[in-house]
Design brief:
- The protein has 362 residues and is of the alpha/beta class.
- It folds into two domains: 201 residues, Isopropylmalate Dehydrogenase (3-Layer(aba) Sandwich), CATH 3.40.718.10; 138 residues, Isopropylmalate Dehydrogenase (3-Layer(aba) Sandwich), CATH 3.40.718.10.
- Helices cover 42% and strands 20% of the residues.
- It is built from twelve helices and twelve strands.
- The strands form two sheets. A ten-stranded mixed β-sheet has the order 2-1-3-12-11-4-5-10-8-9, sandwiched between helices. Strands 6-7 form a two-stranded antiparallel sheet.
- The longest helix is centred in the last third of the chain and has 24 residues.
- The radius of gyration is 21 Å and the shape is globular.
- The structure holds 3-isopropylmalic acid and magnesium ion.
- 3-isopropylmalic acid binds next to loops.
Amino acid sequence: MRGYRIAAVPGDGIGPETVAAARQVLGVVSVAEGFSLAWDEYAWGCDHYLRTGSMMDADGLEKLAGADAILLGAVGRPDVPDHVSLWGLLIPIRRHFDQFVSLRPARSLPGIRGPLAADRGPVDLVVVRENTEGEYSEVGGRFHRGQPDELAVQEAIFTRRGIERIARYAFDLARTRRGRVASATKSNGIVHTMPFWDEVVAEVAADYPDVELTKYHVDALAGLLVLDPARFDVILGSNLFGDILSDLTAALVGGIGVAPCGNIDPTRAHPSMFEPIHGSAPDIAGRGTANPLGQLWSSVLMLEHLGETTAARRLLDAVERVVAAGIHTPDLGGTARTADVTEAVIRSYATEERGAAGGRGS
Ligand code: IPM
Ligand code: MG
C-alpha cells in the first residue's frame, strides 16, 4: 500500500482545531483512496516557547526532515512577539527545507460572496511568492538603541538563482493554466533590487515564448486586482509583495478563512509544508468556530504534492460542495461550527466516493 509519513505541527490559537479537523478528514480520504498516512504530531509553538524558551525542539528540523510532508496549523499569540514566534518556527522551516515556492491559489467559490459591490467576474488565479529571500532577510541591525539617533537597517537580498527559480516555477505553472504571468515589481521606486528582479524575470520569460509576461508595479497591481481580478492568471511576486498580494487575493474571493498555502521545495530534496493563509486567530481559539476549510484546502495541495491527485480532486470537490451548500462558519457569515463543516465535508466526500465506486463497478 502507498504510504506517507506526515508531520503535523498544530501550533497556536485555532491551529490545533483546524489540524485536528484535517487529520479527521484525511483519515477518511486515505482509507477510501487506498493509501496510508502515518502521523507524527509535534506540540510546538508559543506554549512550548513559554515553557522552554524555544518555539520547537532543538532537533526539531531534524525530526521534520524525515517526513514526506508537513501540515502546519498557525503560529503566533499576543503575549509572544511575532518576530520571536514566527522566526522560531515557521520561517526556519521554510528556509531550512528550501521551500522557495509559496503557492497561494485564490478562486471564487459558488456560495461565497466576495466583498466587492460589483461582480467583477470569476477569479481564478495563483500567487507564486518567493519564499526564502528578498525583503525577509536577517541582514541588518539596530544601532544606538534607545538614543535619539537610534536607527534600524534591513537589507533586502535578491539573488539571480533565487529570482530565476521562482520565475521558472511561475512560468511552468502558467503553461498548465491560461498562459499568463503578471510579475509584481516596484522598479520605479526601488532602484537596485527591483530592476534586477525585472531583468531576471524577462530572461526567464524568453524561454517561454508561449507564456505572456506582463510587468506591473505592485501598487498598480493592487488596484487592478480590485478593479479587474478576472484578468489575472499567475501572479509572480517577491517575498513581501507576494505576502501582501496573497492576502488581498484571498480577501477578494471572500476567503481568508478558506485560502490555502503550499510552501514547496519543487526539487523534493526536502519535505514541503502546507498551511492555511490565515493566522492563529487567538480571539476565537478554543471555541469550536474556526473555519477548517483553509486547512482542508491546504491538505488538498499536500495530496497533490504527494501525487495523490484523485484524492486531492475529490476532496476539493467535497469542500466546494459544502461551501456551495451554505454550511458556513461565522467568518463566512454562517453559524456552522468547525465540527459541522468537517463532518459535512466527510459526508459529501463519502457520498461521492461511493457513487464513483458504484459507477466504476457497474
Ligand atoms: C504568511 C504570513 C507570514 C509571512 C508571517 C506570519 C511571518 O503573513 O504566511 O503570509 O509573512 O510569511
Ligand atoms: Mg501573509
